């Protein structure tokens, strides 16, 4: 099926989403049946506004630099496609003779490409649509992990390890520090904070996951125990923590176009701030908190080498599948038996769209406040080795006689 291809990026960025973009472009440039490869400026929203760029006309040097560039080179969007807009999308596809559609994104993006691909099938318009996974949350069904997660996990792990050393050395000033990660409903990213833990006394000491109801009294007791044990406490929290009755701990009520609660700056609330206030008031000690939003999603200086390579391969695989006649699927990453190696597969778009994948229950300890050894086995192959920092020997000097 000869025709043109188009690719778009949606949702929050990652440190490797542009590697997937270049993977799609390179795959299209080599595909016999793809005449031209276009890019959507600002996702499906820009496509409807006729904002297209000729990606096939970009120089090799430009594409190589973009492949290593953070954030979304085409520009992103969180536009929820309305039913009445599907006819406009179909009109644009026909206008540019687009027969191959690729969208790089998460749950909501897979819902968008599924709806477009389904509409084309119903209307008799020949189109092959393949999704390319992307999210730092690691919450897409049908894939062992998502491109973007290993790099974000590496950012979180290193931030908490380095910030934890600061917290240890400032324990006479601040008795606790809280690091808030992104992730609406899944605890994969908070869990990654444990990957920088060097020994039992090293940060982080506690991790709280959206999959477990947040119990303020239990948290107070946990933190108090850790302060008594180590003289300070390092805590990681997922932004989507909820109480047992379902209320967000952050108190946020703002929702995005997909009816997801906004937990970041747009929500105007912070779970770290709420817990910080609770700990300070109830325990009577000083503490700090860090709320890092976009940096953990786009810090290319902490990008995982495996992540960058897999993101590119997922983009190329999407084109290979479409050129072979496959449609209505998302590229997935599989976990092979034995030592980890990159293994690609597929999952139907309908199984991914709009349904987040929670953290595996066996990755969370019985107390609900840290990860298990099984999580370390899962995550360590995905990130680069952590730095080996040094600790002084604090053996007390004996006073001279």
Structure write-up:
By secondary structure, the chain is an alpha/beta fold. The chain folds into 2 domains: 3-147 and 301-352, Rossmann fold, CATH 3.40.50.450; 150-299 and 358-382, Rossmann fold (3-Layer(aba) Sandwich). Helices cover 36% and strands 16% of the residues. The protein has 13 helices and 11 strands. Strands 3-2-1-4-5-10-11 form a 7-stranded mixed β-sheet, with helices on both faces. The protein has a 4-stranded parallel β-sheet with strand order 7-8-6-9, with helices on both faces. Helix 1 (17-30) links the parallel strand 1 and strand 2. Helix 1 packs parallel to helix 11. The radius of gyration is 23 Å and the shape is elongated.
């Amino acid at each position: 099926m000869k025709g043109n291809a188009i690719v778009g990026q949606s949702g929050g960025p990652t440190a490797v989403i542009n590697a997937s973009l270049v993977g799609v472009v390179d795959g299209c440039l080599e595909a016999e049946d793809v005449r031209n490869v276009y890019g959507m400026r600002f996702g499906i929203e820009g496509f409807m506004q006729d904002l297209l760029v000729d990606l096939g006309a970009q120089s090799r040097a430009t594409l190589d630099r973009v492949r290593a560039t953070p954030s979304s080179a085409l520009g992103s969007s969180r536009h929820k496609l309305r039913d009445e807009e599907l006819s406009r999308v179909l009109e644009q596809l026909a206008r540019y003779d687009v027969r191959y559609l690729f969208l790089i994104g998460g749950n909501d993006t897979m819902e968008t490409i599924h709806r477009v691909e389904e509409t084309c099938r119903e209307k008799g318009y020949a189109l092959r649509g393949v999704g390319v996974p992307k999210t730092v949350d690691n919450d897409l069904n049908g894939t062992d992990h998502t491109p973007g997660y290993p790099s974000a996990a590496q950012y979180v792990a290193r931030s908490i390890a380095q910030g934890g050393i600061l917290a240890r050395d400032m324990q006479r000033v601040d008795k606790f520090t809280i690091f808030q990660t992104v992730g609406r409903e899944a605890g994969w990213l908070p869990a990654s904070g444990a990957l920088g833990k060097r020994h039992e006394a090293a940060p982080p000491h506690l991790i709280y996951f959206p999959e477990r109801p947040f119990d303020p009294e239990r948290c107070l007791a946990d933190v108090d125990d850790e302060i008594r044990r180590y003289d300070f406490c390092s805590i990681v929290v997922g932004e989507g923590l909820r109480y047992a009755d379902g209320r967000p701990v952050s108190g946020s009520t703002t929702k995005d176009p997909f009816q997801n609660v906004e937990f970041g700056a747009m929500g105007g609330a912070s779970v770290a701030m709420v817990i910080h206030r609770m700990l300070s008031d109830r325990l009577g000690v000083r503490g700090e908190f860090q709320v890092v939003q976009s940096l953990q999603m786009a810090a290319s200086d902490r990008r995982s080498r495996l992540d960058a390579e897999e993101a590119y391969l997922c983009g190329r695989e999407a084109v290979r599948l479409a050129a072979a006649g496959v449609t209505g699927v998302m590229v997935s990453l599989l976990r092979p038996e034995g030592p980890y190696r990159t293994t690609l597969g597929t999952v139907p778009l309908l199984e991914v769209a709009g349904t987040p994948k929670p953290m595996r229950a066996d990755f969370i300890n019985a107390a609900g406040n840290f990860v298990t050894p099984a999580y370390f086995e899962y995550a360590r192959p995905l990130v680069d080795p952590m730095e080996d920092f040094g600790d002084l020997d604090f053996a007390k000097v004996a006073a001279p006689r």
